[in-house]
Amino acid sequence: xxxxxxxxxxxxSRYQLEAAGSYAGVVRHAAGDAVxxxxxxxxxxxxxxxxxxxxxxxxxREAIAEIRTTxxxxxxxxxxxxxxxxxxxxxxxxxxxxxxxxxxxDGPVTPLISPVSFYTPVLPRGTVHLGVSFxxxxxxxxxxxxxxxxxxxxxxxxxEHREAMRRQAQADWGTFLRLRADELAPGGRLxxxxxxxADDGTxxxxxxxxxxxxxxxxxxxxxxxxxxxxxxxxxxxYERTREEVLEPFEAGSAGGLAIEALATRPIPNPYAERYRRxxxxxxxxxxxxxxxxxxxGPSLRRGLDLSPDAExxxxxxxxxxxxxxxDGFWFEVTTILLVVARA
Length: 343
Hints:
- Helix content is about 45%, strand content about 15%.
- The protein is α/β, with parallel strands linked by helices.
- The longest helix is centred in the middle third of the chain and has 25 residues, at about 160-185.
- The protein has one domain: 3-Layer(aba) Sandwich (Rossmann fold).
- It has 11 helices and 7 strands.
- Helix 10 (about 280-305) packs antiparallel against helix 11.
């Protein structure tokens, strides 16, 4: 990923947690398939784009429990991968907890850290039997177009700028898949999900980033954000279409990976769902703004060279805007779940 997740990301990642939590059965099944014919004396697991581990740790526990049914004493390593600036201390604290995958009994489990972009090699060739990656591969390897005016999200781009970001997203997607194919052992599986554009063509971030664009433009007019920096900033996230996700597999450029399972589905907005139950618009705005700040704050801070006060004000205004529009504010993520195998 191009941006590390903010410190305290897990406290505001309920969306990601609920999505990943629904994949327990898929991960367990993939783990069992991945080790059926393993001849290595160890089993390797990799979590690509791990953040602080809240979403993936329960799934890693499921995977290890499944592997232990057929490989009760085999050494297992679990490699956590993210940017060097990730909050690694929070991840390590989680591993010491009673619900950590390290509490699974039987043979030894060794946690490892690979603090690099997953658009570079993460582990040695052929050492990963099971890979997982959740809500990560929509982040691009480089910033968005720097001469696109005041667009701050990909769906605000037009013409050649929109096409340039699409090409970058597809190049990154192909790179991600080829690198994972190289790292997977024969018969290895990769379970991943990523944001995609809904069937009606509307990105999940459309309303959100339209509102943030308005806030940033207002603050630039007030002299609180550098207008020149704003004119060069686009969040390095791209929501692919289903067709764009499948493109490398159909073109034979996915490193020999084959799709075993695929499902597209909407993930209900947990903050909006709670608002519909309790009617607390202020809490909805505050929680949603916290969610956005957790994943996008580092990129905005760096890209716009924000002072702490300016960053606080952006998200204060976002919370207020969501509260005021609570009944009509739309943000529902559509994900595509893929299980792929290395032949």
